[in-house]
Amino acid sequence: MVRRAALVIAVLALGLVGPAVPAQAAQPTFDEFSRLSVRSAGQYWSGNQVGGQWAWSPQSATESGISWGDPATWPPTSMEMFRHEGDWLLLDGWKDNGTYYTVRVTQEQIGDGTCADLRPVPAAGGRQHYVQWTVPAQAYCLKAWGTITEQSSGKVVDFGHTQIWSPPAACGNAYFTGQTCVKQWESWWDNRGTPGTPITRKLERDQYIARGLGMAFRIQQYYPSSWRADLRYSWTW
């Protein structure tokens, strides 16, 4: 009787278990595309000449800075400072001209890939929500308005920044094929040089960021002029 009951229980258990379910792959993170957590660098070209260079300089387990400039006069004096908090990469400001420029938002919104269905983004100490750390499977829009304060003088610039981040997709450029990229479309507005006046558009572009290669994989600028550049070299230092 005991043996028979055990057999019945075993059969029922087998029926309940069913076929094995394969484990889901972990969602990629922005770090895997940007390479911000390691001392990485890249050089992008426009036509037959160097268009510029970038390099990440991790400052701690949660902070990293990126410099952009001309490799002929490297290193540049400027460095944008980012912080990883929760599921966000936040922009704090940047170093340049021997001082620091603090970015603080007064309003932020997040919406779908067409910038519809906008809703507030919870504050993060005033830092700008720049990009989601875990890369979602659908496009999303970020809108931010705020101020940039030059710490050495107290001068303030008003800004507006709209971004649309697209999910991973196949990509290539003039030097690499068969890559996977996330795309950032951005439009930057400010009133630099004319304080107190309405902000005006200063930059509009697409930037493709390739997994394992990094920033500026492909840049297509639309405003203030049409310009394209492609990542040619990528390395760690």
Could you characterize the architecture of this molecule?
Residues 1-25 form the signal peptide. Keywords: Signal. With 237 residues, this protein is mainly beta. It has one domain. The protein contains two helices and 14 strands, in the order H-H-E-E-E-E-E-E-E-E-E-E-E-E-E-E. The protein has a twelve-stranded antiparallel beta barrel with strand order 1-2-3-4-5-6-9-10-11-12-13-14. A hairpin with a 4-residue loop joins strand 2 (49-58) and strand 3 (63-69). The N and C termini lie far apart (72 Å). Mean pLDDT is 92; it is low at 1-18.
Key descriptive features of the protein:
single chain; mainly beta; 2 helices; 9% helix
Draw up the topology in text:
Elements: H1 2-17, H2 30-34, E1 40-46, E2 49-58, E3 63-69, E4 79-85, E5 88-96, E6 99-112, E7 119-120, E8 128-132, E9 140-150, E10 156-171, E11 179-190, E12 200-210, E13 214-223, E14 227-236
Antiparallel strand pairs: 1-2, 1-14, 2-3, 3-4, 4-5, 5-6, 5-8, 6-7, 6-9, 9-10, 10-11, 11-12, 12-13, 13-14
N-to-C terminal Cα separation, in Å? 72 Å
DSSP strand (E) fraction?
A: over 45%
Overall pLDDT, averaged?
A: 92
Q: What does the radius of gyration come to?
A: 23 Å
Condensed summary:
This protein is mainly β and 237 residues long. Helix content is 9%, strand content 55%.
